[in-house]
Design a protein that fits this description.
Helices cover 62% and strands 0% of the residues. By secondary structure, it is mainly α. α1 packs across α2, α1 crosses α3 and α4 packs antiparallel against α7.
């Protein structure tokens, strides 16, 4: 027997959240080209016109999914930081591990949040406080910024290292794309370069 979803079961903000979750599921299962308002509506069990009340076209839907994706990305890095060592050096390694874990577990969502349009959200996060994905990186790098120096130098060095490594891994550079190797096999030796980037925590 086929279960029919109740189209009246969503209300107000719940519907927006349900549509975003439906979009993430479609993105994960079928890729970005399959992400449409109509398909999200069908998966959420509402009329095809319902998403128009919450998103400005498919671009608005993608932006909303990216915003949710950045929050999940942030939470993954925070969990990795909490689970690792608590020294400044360990914090950087841990958030980089969380960065890679998120991408490996959510490759389609990772690709979306760093695509041209949604990337604007990350650029806004760079200007925001620590309650953002970029803020987690900024906070981890802060102890290594020399007094009077531009913090973006250290931040960009660390970000470039882990972002580049992550993209190379997702591209299958370290093994067949359909294989499931331990994606941390090369992580430790490559991340040892962080010692050259950060060095000792800066003192005032």
């Amino acid at each position: 027997m086929v279960e029919v979803k109740d189209k009246k079961s969503h209300h107000h903000g719940d519907l927006r959240a349900a549509l975003i979750q439906s979009g993430i599921e479609i993105l994960t299962e079928s890729g970005l080209d399959s992400l449409t308002l109509r398909r999200c509506a069908a998966r959420a069990g509402v009329s095809h016109a319902a998403p128009a009340h919450h998103f400005d076209g498919v671009a608005g839907l993608r932006g909303a999914i990216a915003k949710e994706g950045f929050d999940r990305f942030r939470q993954t890095m925070l969990k990795a930081r909490a689970a690792g060592g608590q020294s400044p050096e360990a914090h950087i390694r841990s958030i980089c591990r969380g960065y890679l874990d998120f991408a490996v577990e959510n490759p389609a969502l990772f690709a979306l949040i760093f695509s041209c349009g949604p990337m604007a959200q990350f650029e806004e996060d760079m200007k925001a406080g620590d309650a953002s994905a970029y803020g987690v990186l900024r906070q981890a790098c802060a102890p290594f910024v020399p007094p009077g120096a531009d913090p973006r130098v250290i931040e960009t060095q660390v970000w470039s290292l882990i972002h580049g490594f992550t993209h190379l891994f997702l591209a299958g550079t370290f093994g067949p794309a359909n294989a499931t190797p331990d994606h941390h096999a090369l992580f430790a030796p490559v991340m040892s370069l962080l010692q050259k980037i950060g060095g000792e925590p800066a003192t005032g």
